[in-house]
Amino acid sequence: MFVNLRPLRPSDWPLLKAIELDAESSRYGDDQGFTEDELYAFLLSEHNLEKHAQFRWVICPPNETEGLGFIDLFEADFEQRRAWIGILLLPEARRKGLGSQALRALLNQLPELGIDTLMAEVQPDNAASVAFFQKNGFQKHAQKGENWVFIKSALPKFA
User: Fold this and answer.
1) Which of 6, 22, 125, 152 is deepest in the core (most CB within 10 A)?
2) pLDDT digits over 97-115, tens only?
């Protein structure tokens, strides 16, 4: 199965709640989580990468609108041409290669978005995320507090 990315829309409310309020997902989040009211306000807010330095895409199977998860760019710095990335999938959609497919789809869009480098912050005990980012060409770059920072250049490599 291949995936498509589409912008977040109000009909994604059940998916947003299922993923963002999931105990396993929030365990590895970098904040204290969101209330339902905060999530709903986010859903209804303007989504514009250039204006807000963040954007969320919904990961969908081809020819379907039902989402399987999200891939986000946030804290985009257009002067440095870099952004942080996050990927969240429904538990039943994990470990099927869908996150890697979504990442490749996003990498194809990065040049037109003005981003050359992606960074991901991962807790060292989150073995699945560490393995995911390493498998997808991210290199351990630094430590941020207790977490690891992985980095990947989105620029094509020429021999």
Assistant:
1) 152
2) 999 999 999 999 999 999 9
